[in-house]
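*** Fold description ***
***
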Amino acid sequence: MTTTGMLDVTADVLTKFTWNYVQDNPALVKLYEKGKVSQWNATTDIDWTPEVVFGEPDPEMTPEAREMIDNFMGFNSPDSPFAGMNENERIRMGWEFQSWMVSQFMHGEQGALVATARLVETVPDIDAKYYGANQVADEARHVEAYARYINDKLGADHAYEISAPLEALLVDIMTEKRWDITYLGMQIMVEGLALAAFGMGNVLFRDPVIKQITDYVMRDEARHVAFGVLALKEAIPQLSSAELADREEFLLEAIDLMYQRFLLEQVWERVGIDVEKGKAFARNNPLMIIFRQMLFSKIVPNVNKLGLMTSAVRQRFEELQVIQWASTPDSASEELAAADA
């Protein structure tokens, strides 16, 4: 139940201790070693000095970025709810979208913080416990950095509450006692979507502070998604057909929740646009459709790599027009290749 500033989730969890301390997963060991030397400090490594003024135009925005934002928000489309906006209103809309997006990053990172702490408790092998513990520190740093940006730079009054679809998925993940579904929900779905969103967000973001934060976070998240793939690729083949059907059902629900996440109801409500008209625009605007499709660019190849591309999952990806990502490299292959470079 949600109360002011809190969400309580009750879960039945099986804690797993292991007395086998032999590290026998070389790929996870390599990822863990990379994580240990990739730590950064949100207090000292981020340049917090630039002033950020909500609603101020970005003097460094390129014409290409400006055109992308105008098309993304539909400012030049006569059937858009923004068609009559003046320049100041357009700039405010860009800032509102940035505030909403960063707020969801912050909430999602806290979800990752809590879920990864759960994984340390529930995963059966020592390699995953080591890496999970390292990731917990990463996630705490991400929440810290985004929270400081919102509170000290944007102003807390510009923050957004967690979106309903993201909250629903976090509840689903945290009420699960099966550790592989926690991996599937957080490391593959939430973190995979975030990894793609960070890259696109940095094209739309309007100040150097948030771009710097997100660059640092992206480096960590690439490892985190790879961790999910490496940990699950050994577990999935051992599941029974009934267990695989449960994972398929979970995936299908998570896919729908994540695709709904970017209809921006909270933004429309805040700026006084009819919510249903705003949602219809977000659902049908070609660039927003492409944006949502791009968010699955890290999810689809990982699902395929794990052997979870069932006919129902494939059909859903085809309906969303994201199946083309299935043939691209999975996150573990990319991250381990980068570690070897």
Remarks:
- The first strand starts at residue 2 and ends at 3.
- The mean pLDDT is 90.
